[in-house]
Amino acid sequence: MDAKTNTERGYDDFQEHLARLETAGLVQRIDQEVNKDTELHPLVRWQYRGGVPEGDHKAFVFTNVVDAKGRKFDMPVVVGALAGSREIYRLGLRVEADQVGDIWRRAMSNPVEPVQVESAMCQEVVLEGDDLIGDGNGLDALPVPISTPGFDSAPYLTAGNFVTKDPETGVQNMGTYRGGLKAPNRLVVRMATRAGGAGGYPHWLKYQTRGEKMPCAVILGCPPVVAYTGPQKVPSDVDELGVAGGLAGEPIRVVKCRTVDLLVPADSEIIIEGLIDTDFLEPEAPFGESHGHIALEDFNMIFDVTAITRKRNAMFASIISQVTPSESSSIKRDAYEQMFLVHLQNTLGIKGVRNVVMHEPLSNIRRVIFLVMEPGVQRTEIWRALYGAATLRADCGKYVMALNEDIDPNNGDAVFWSLAYRANPTEDIVILPNRDGGHGPKGGSQSSDGTMLVDATLKQPTAPLALPKKEFMENAKALWERLGLAPLNPEVPWHGYSLGDWTDEWDQLAENAVKGDYLENGKRSAQMRRSGIKPNTPVRDVIK
Ligand SMILES: Cc1cc2nc3c(=O)[nH]c(=O)nc-3n(C[C@H](O)[C@H](O)[C@H](O)COP(=O)(O)O)c2cc1C
């Protein structure tokens, strides 16, 4: 493929995206020597565990990578370039922040079939046969980092998009799965077999029934629009590359692999081709998982490498996963939230759902889901939404909670506030049995789980939030700043507002007070005196 063809593309490849991030000041380049087995991921981890605000997150480019034995590598390692932050993710989609949801909706409902090209940059270098055998060759020549040093059993591919094909329908599937290195020409891949797990697994079962090995290709470092569809849930008869085309607004250019009958994005950095055994399995892991615990050793699929093809100047992409928030949860979150919103609004036809927010820090996005409801939604519709969100996917929605719009679901304090004052545990919580154990650490009674649905919306008009009205807080903020006091970082709620139980008369009393006319209010209440009433009796119960 020549450079001219490349410029005809309307979507970025991985390196063009990185250049875009660099221009936006979102790349942290590390030219100092860094050990991929002990230092690289722990360094990036500090971005997530060191109190760095999400808005300051960067993609890390390591240009001088060595391994634990002091070996050097001929390509940089890039971590966090796909979804290191929401800004990085948005730039990967090449849309404004407020268009992210819309573009996912468009792509999921209007996939664009890929277009096949004859030659591709990802095949500039082709390694086959003896090139894949022996130390320092094949997979061993790639700078694959160890994600969780001290626990992981091997360097792992974490940004690998595994392409397989349904042998009956011919429809390809692409999923982001982890792949542990075992030999220069062998890795072991873990495709989740649970309900709602990996789309490649049903393919594997079909090849097994036929007594054949399963052809597979791993895409490493690809156009961000492709990478973003790898972790998404799309119907089994839809190829993720089509959804990627929907995101790009044009077909993804694909090329045929050299040794297996599969199509992969032509503008990828590296492709690993191979055959997955359908007879034998091999121990895989321990490896740090995105549910935030170490996945213990399981039998998983053996991938025998038949070829590695790559760009001459390839970069090695790695995703930081494990404890959330991480790149692994951020890369899923927007599309997952849209999938739930579309289901509730369009499939179930529930009108009052304004937003779906999946809780990310530590819990990962699957288990705790918030539904932001419009005011005045019928209670039965709120419950339909709660049941709908809990049942869409087997592994999502262990806790589903409906909230009002003034509660920020990303603020745990606000959520507890809502539970404290807007939900009655005896009436507003339903607990259901028979949930799948889902994506979590194995062991104990985890094979079966439950579901908790909570309606934490206001059920009746309630007295206003007891903070000064907005205008007073705004004036006071200006005064605060004129006085040169410590800089403010306003936290919602920072002003009072009505929650439905408030009258014009009480408004008048408050207005009198701020005008200095509280004595008028005193005259009014003197005229309203009553005897024979218990203290604390509401005035409106006595004077209608
Ligand atoms: C960084 C990362 C690693 C993942 N690792 C795995 C994995 O090892 N196995 C798996 O089944 N799913 C894994 N997932 C989740 C899948 O990508 C997700 O379920 C996706 O829908 C799979 O696509 P599929 O449904 O077409 O198989 C991972 C996701 C991310 C972002």
How many DSSP helices?
15
Low-pLDDT sequence parts: 1-6
Under the CATH scheme, which class of the largest domain? Mainly Beta
The CATH homologous superfamily of the largest domain corresponds to: Electron Transport, Fmn-binding Protein, Chain A
- The helix content is 25-40%
At a glance:
This protein is an alpha+beta fold.
Report on the structure:
The chain is α+β, with helices and mostly antiparallel strands and 544 residues long. It folds into 3 domains: 3-318, Electron Transport, Fmn-binding Protein, Chain A (Pnp Oxidase, Chain A, Roll); 348-455, UbiD C-terminal domain-like (3-Layer(aba) Sandwich), CATH 3.40.1670; 470-542, no CATH class. Helix content is 28%, strand content 23%. The chain has 15 helices and 25 strands. The protein has helices spanning 3-7, 14-23, 40-49, 86-93, 100-109, 200-210, 224-229, 240-248, 327-347, 379-391, 412-422, 470-482, 504-514, 518-527, 539-542; strands at 27-30, 34-35, 59-62, 65-66, 77-79, 115-116, 125-128, 156-157, 160-165, 172-176, 179-183, 186-189, 214-220, 253-256, 263-265, 270-284, 287-288, 294-295, 298-310, 316-318, 353-358, 368-373, 399-404, 429-436, 448-455. Helix 5 (100-109) crosses helix 8 and helix 5 (100-109) crosses helix 9. The longest helix is centred in the middle third of the chain and has 21 residues, at 327-347. It is elongated.
